[in-house]
Write a structure and sequence with these properties.
Blueprint lengths: L19 H52 L25 H4 L7 H17 L39 E6 L6 H4 L3 E2 L15 E2 L4 E2 L2 E2 L2 H6 L7 E5 L24 E3 L17 E2 L14 E2 L17 E6 L4 E5 L4 H8 L10
Parallel strand pairs: 1-7, 8-9
Antiparallel strand pairs: 1-6, 2-3, 4-5, 6-10, 10-11
Length: 347
């Protein structure tokens, strides 16, 4: 007689457990659920990051109005003494707008560490304000970007990264000339100037040692039609020597956008090479979506950029924050960044 045996537990009942096939099915189901959940989690995370980013821009825009209330005009893009190069990263340039706004961004204690240097720089070149150059400040960083921990090695090294840039002008100029309303010899790519007008006016807001008051913007194109700040990307993950995205330096590409609607640059998040003219340029062919050109060691043309899908955040002079899509018409983008073009535009 054939007798069969079953495995039993201590209570004499048959043992229960997963077969290998059942285990594999469970693992597969869990993997599918995780795969379905991750995009949702990433979407929520990016939404939160973008909200923090817009809040940062809002704080910065309001700080500019607070600064003007005390000093009668917004902060300059950068302070530079007579005889000092306005685009050489190794020159004795002064503090940028980010440093000057610190007291209006709840950073009074940090500002006081640099106050003597800020106060004396224009008179005697005091650069002790640079003691705060390595401070990591969340108000100047978009959480969607990465590479913030990589300090810039130029100008003595140790400069902390940032993601917001003062709008100097959509034209490719520097200093006071272009921001006072010079006409652009390089109108928006592929678009002729308006009839009977040889060039597009391209006045910006921030320049070397000065900035345009809000009253002037109101009397020209209007504060609700003129961009005050754009987002920019920092280049820490590309190369520590690449000078893009540095909050304390008020030069183009570091914390200023300039020429970002003419010549090489078509609009926000411009793809391809040869766009930003930046010291330590690390992406000449645009393979990392941060194309650049290094003719020398100077700061020059620089585009508005972000890691947000499809566009960049921008703060207008009236304090409103708007998301500008990458595919915006080049003339519209130009007009948004020019304070005195006199053109109407539709997004």
């Amino acid at each position: 007689m054939h007798t069969s045996f079953k495995k039993v537990n201590r209570e004499g009942l048959p043992k229960k457990g997963f077969t290998l096939i059942e285990l594999l099915v469970v693992i597969a189901i869990i993997a599918i659920l995780i795969g379905l959940l991750l995009p949702a989690v990433q979407k929520v995370r990016e939404s939160a990051s973008r909200m923090r980013c817009t809040n940062n821009l809002k704080q910065i825009a309001l700080a500019v109005h607070g600064y003007e209330g005390v000093h009668s005009q917004p902060p300059p893009a950068i302070q530079i003494r007579t005889g000092v190069s306005d685009n050489d990263p190794n020159a004795n340039f002064g503090p940028g707008w980010g440093v000057l706004l610190l007291p209006f961004l709840e950073q009074q204690a940090l500002y006081m560490q640099a106050e003597t240097g800020v106060r004396n720089y224009m008179a005697n070149g005091d650069n002790t304000w640079r003691t705060i150059k390595g401070q990591a400040l969340s108000v100047f960083r978009c959480p969607s970007d990465s590479g913030h921990e990589v300090l810039w090695t130029g100008a003595g090294g140790g400069w902390a990264r940032g993601n917001y840039a003062a709008n100097a002008s959509p034209c490719y100029y520097w200093g006071k000339t272009y921001t006072d309303g010079a006409a652009s010899s390089n109108p928006p790519t592929g678009t002729p100037p308006p009839p009977n007008e040889p060039n597009f006016p391209c006045g910006g807001i921030f320049g070397v040692n000065f900035a345009q008051p809000m009253s002037k913007l109101t009397n020209e194109d209007g504060t609700s039609s003129t961009i005050l700040f754009n987002e920019i990307r920092n280049s820490g993950l590309l190369n520590a020597a690449d000078g893009r995205g540095i909050w304390a330096i008020g030069m183009s590409g570091a914390s200023v956008t300039m020429g970002h609607a003419t010549w090489w640059i078509k609009g926000p998040n411009h793809l391809g090479g040869g766009a930003d003219d930046i010291p330590g340029c690390a992406d000449p062919n645009g393979l990392k979506d941060m194309g650049c050109y290094q003719a020398a060691t100077s700061f020059g043309q620089a585009a508005a950029r972000s890691t947000h899908k499809g566009g960049v955040n921008a703060a207008f002079a009236d304090g409103t924050i708007r998301f500008i899509k990458d595919n915006i018409n080049s003339v519209t983008w130009y007009c948004m960044n020019s304070r005195n073009d006199g053109q109407t535009y539709a997004e």
